[in-house]
User: What shape does this take?
Amino acid sequence: MAAFEIIAHTELSSGASYVEFTSIPATYQHLYILGSGRSTRSAYADGSGIQLNGHSDNGDYHMSAILAWGPSSPGSYDTVGDTQNSLGYMMDSPGADAEANVFGTGHCWILDYTATDKFTGMMGGASAPGYSGDTNDYLQTFGHGHCTQTKTEVIHTVRIKNGVGNYAVGTAFTIYGVNSV
Amino acid sequence: MASTFEFITKTVLGSNASVIDFANVTQAYEHLQVRIHGKSSYGGLSDDARISFNRSGTLGTWDQQYMYGMYSTDGVGELFSAYGQVWLTRLAGNSGTSVYQRGTIVVTISDYANTSKKASIQWYGGNVSGDNNNQGKQISMGGASWSETTAISEIRIQSGSAGLRDGTSVAIYGMKSS
Assistant: This one.
């Protein structure tokens, strides 16, 4: 049996505020999302993250991430502690002010997504570099995050939600199922 | 269902070499993953690994960002278009540390065959030996954007200040999306 199997793939032909995968089969051990994204936000970068089964209220997620926003101090890197508790914030994208044709690489693991005896754990990150020669914050961002969704549900829907702008045309994500037997 | 995470090719050095090159990389996948387990010929505890694309064609430049831990210190850094390679985390060096010591790096290259996107990569890795100093214990993760929209058909792995030691291995995997 293949260890990784494709569940679904979406590439946007028009802008959208999120990419969503529904009716995810409960036949795998883990889920893995990998893709490339760009935002229409008029800035150098935009935040984005994961919401599961339509849950989007504050307190639905506990989130911590290490972020690098450009090289300047003191904000050159930061730890975010539960300030984004309505989603798993870990998949930034370059914004509309970044160089043309630059897309970030974002990924997320969702472990034991069918278990109903534990909260759902997620781990992922993104890199969104994209402007030569300028060293202001947000011109390049890189992050790694971990998130716990405070539900004990089988995960059937995964939404990759952009921050301020829409995901731009060409943004593409694939969701894989990962077998354990 | 057919496998969607597939082995493409690997090189294990039987003797020291200046670089490891992969030519004619298939365009049949959505993403690539490169796994490096290596040692440099550099006469020190460690040396940075580097990756570059399409050496025989358009080399291009890189914008890159990373965060690192070096023994008891940490930090972030950016490099803008100064190099034709991305500086990854460290390989083991060839002096002052165990002959068995190796650095380990995983690099993900998203949508690498898409000529409407500049190639984007993300990596993490480290070389953590029993040597308690900045050169002996290093971990890092980061990302980079290439200046070109050319499809990636060649991949080069090298060490920053010297060649690669025998036994260094590099494997490439492909991930499909349909």
